[in-house]
Automatic annotation (TrEMBL):
Lineage: Bacteria, Pseudomonadati, Bacteroidota, Cytophagia, Cytophagales
Protein name: RagB/SusD family nutrient uptake outer membrane protein
Keyword field: Cell outer membrane, Membrane, Signal
Species annotation: Runella salmonicolor
Domain SusD-like N-terminal, first and last residues per copy: 105-227
Protein family membership: Belongs to the SusD family.
Signal peptide interval: 1-23
A Pfam family it matches: SusD_RagB
InterPro entries per the UniProt record, alphabetical: SusD-like_N (IPR033985), SusD_RagB_dom (IPR012944), TPR-like_helical_dom_sf (IPR011990)
Major localization class: membrane
């Protein structure tokens, strides 16, 4: 039996948490506090509680699933659901120009939930530091894990809000209220990086319990941070320079992960999205979830709970996260099995005649195609909640079949015990490829990108219909060294990242990192609003919409110490 971190300690028996009005005055309350803890076992429970916290978001305050912030705000998906007024804040986010600092649910609640996870780390760090290594031999390892977890939450905040306050476990309540969000971009990246570096220096390469961070996951995460940091931005979010030194760090860090031999691509991309194959060779760090663990509703993931097909009888709710026509078109391929870079979006893809990348049928629910690898119930347009507004496509990577042992329905909403990958090996390969390309070494990136494409080509086994045929015509091939210039390689890299992580919530942040969010998204809107008239007033404004506003409630709470992001 797998020995999972979250099954070793009954977390709710260690700490019970309540909601709070403001994130910065949040302290974990309940049965125990750090001042009550003296035994290594109890303090280890606080560490486990900090692991739990990174999975403690909710459907309207998500902290690990970026389907709202990184997918709907990109060209990958539409909001979906029952029209534009159904969870209207997501509609506002999709329009960009409707977002305000006073939005009460998503923008504010995500900020608060992330700071709650940071608070758990700081409580646990203070507790661990009360013990000596003689009494607690794992002291350095646990400190490193906690700093890894804290860095993870700060990194997420940085992607979402950019200008954030950063404080550690030594800060008192009075100190925290003096910490502003006016660090330079470089300063804040480096503060977060210091936690990852501490984790690299003090974690082993492997841990006995699944779910714990290790040295390699810390190296992969620091590589991701340095990749974002390499694209230097001015105060208005414009990319002004690409730092070659940071890119070289990305190469070094990702090479350490690759050369370790500990991770590899799964044979089929489907393995990344099924509970039966979770914690596989591709998973570098994942949030662990459980079902049937003795609690009322399990340790479940609900952040994607709105995103099941509405009309499918086995689900019944709620039809959000609808795949865009642009995303479907992007999967089409030419006669050589390569993307239609320049013509993909000229007209809607004719899936009866055009060839496509197999990743399409791992990502988008399409009428008559196998849905989530169950060929006895093909996806049907009748499952779509509001086709007149959002079209007939759906998403499926993070959904599970109702027959899955990981699936749990709580009222009208769905949860799953499938682990949530934060870092995968495919990301490491593409991070290294991107760094090589931007360093002027595109030849080194070619085999890395082709590994991803070759795995995509081999990922068709679960896509057959009952009669043994495929609903799509697949044709994806590796790139040739001929014509593999730096410019072409970067275009290929950008395309590969989109298809490999489609609907996983990374697309928007990639566009911002590359400095192309405004032209890409406004071109997307211009095309889409012809058939998706609800987008008629949508507009991405450069210098504002790359990041969410700082919640007004937090600015008020700090008496104006926090400064609002530009444009809001």
């Amino acid at each position: 039996m797998k020995k999972k971190l979250f099954s070793t300690i009954f977390i709710s028996g260690i700490l019970a948490f309540s909601s709070c009005e403001n994130a910065l005055d949040y302290t974990p309350t309940g049965v125990l506090s750090s001042s009550d803890l003296t035994s290594p076992t109890a303090i280890d429970g606080l560490v486990t509680s900090a692991y739990a916290a990174i999975g403690n978001g909710d459907m309207i305050g998500p902290i690990y699933s970026n389907w709202v912030y990184g997918s709907v705000r990109s060209d990958d998906t539409y909001k979906g659901g029952g029209g534009t007024g159904d969870v209207g804040e997501i509609d506002a986010l999709e329009h960009y120009n409707l977002v305000t600092p006073t939005m009460g649910a998503f923008v504010t609640r995500t900020w608060q939930n992330l700071f709650k996870s940071i608070s758990r780390c700081n409580v646990a760090l203070r507790a661990v530091n009360t013990l000596t290594e003689a009494n607690f031999p794992n002291k350095k390892i646990r400190l490193a894990e906690l700093r890894f977890l804290r860095a993870h939450s700060y990194f997420t905040m940085k992607l979402l809000y950019k200008n954030i306050p950063i404080f550690d476990e030594t800060a008192t309540e009075a100190d925290i209220l003096k910490v502003s969000n006016t660090l330079t971009n470089e300063e804040s990246w480096n503060k977060i990086a210091a936690d990852f570096q501490f984790a690299i220096d003090n974690l082993p390469t492997s841990q006995a319990e699944l779910g714990r961070a290790n040295k390699l996951s810390a190296q992969a995460y620091l590589a991701k941070l340095r990749l974002y940091q390499a694209y230097e931005q001015d105060s208005n979010h414009k990319v002004t320079n690409i730092n070659k030194g940071r890119l070289q760090e990305v190469v070094t860090l990702t090479q350490a992960v690759i050369s370790s031999g500990k991770y590899s691509l799964s044979k089929d991309i489907a393995d990344n999205f099924l509970p039966e194959t979770e914690n596989g060779p591709e998973s570098i760090f994942a949030i662990q979830f459980t079902v049937n663990d003795g609690t009322t509703a399990g340790r479940m993931s609900y952040e994607d709970g709105l995103n099941y097909p509405h009309g499918a009888p086995q689900y019944g709710c709620c039809g959000f996260h609808a795949g865009s026509q642009n995303l479907v078109n992007a999967h089409t391929t030419d006669a050589n099995g390569l993307p239609n870079f320049d013509t993909f979006n000229n007209k809607p893809a004719d899936l009866a005649t055009q060839t496509v990348d197999p990743r399409l049928d791992h990502t988008v629910g399409i009428d008559g195609h196998v849905y989530k690898y169950d060929n006895t119930k093909l996806f049907s347009n009748s499952w779509v909640r509001d086709p007149g507004v959002y079209g007939n496509f759906h998403t499926m990577r993070f959904q599970q079949l109702a027959t899955s042992g990981s699936y749990f329905k709580l009222g009208p909403f769905m949860g799953t015990a499938k682990n949530y990958d934060i870092l995968r090996y495919d990301d490491v390969l593409l991070m290294q490829a991107e760094a090589y390309i931007q360093l002027g070494q595109p030849a080194n990136a070619l085999p890395l990108i082709n590994q991803i494409r070759e795995r995509a080509a081999a990922s068709t086994g679960r896509l057959k219909k009952l009669d043994g045929t495929f609903a799509s015509k697949y044709n994806v091939k590796p790139y040739s060294a001929t014509g593999w210039t730096q410019e072409f390689a970067f275009k290929a890299l950008q395309w590969e990242r989109r298809l490999e992580f489609a609907t996983e919530g990374s697309r928007f942040f990639d566009l911002v990192r590359w400095g192309i969010a405004e032209p890409t998204l406004n071109a997307y809107i211009a095309k889409e609003k012809v058939s998706r008239t609800y987008l008629a007033t949508a507009k991405f404004t450069a210098g504002r919409d790359e990041y969410l506003p700082i919640p007004q409630a937090e600015i008020t709470f700090t008496n104006g110490l926090y400064k609002q992001n530009p444009g809001y």
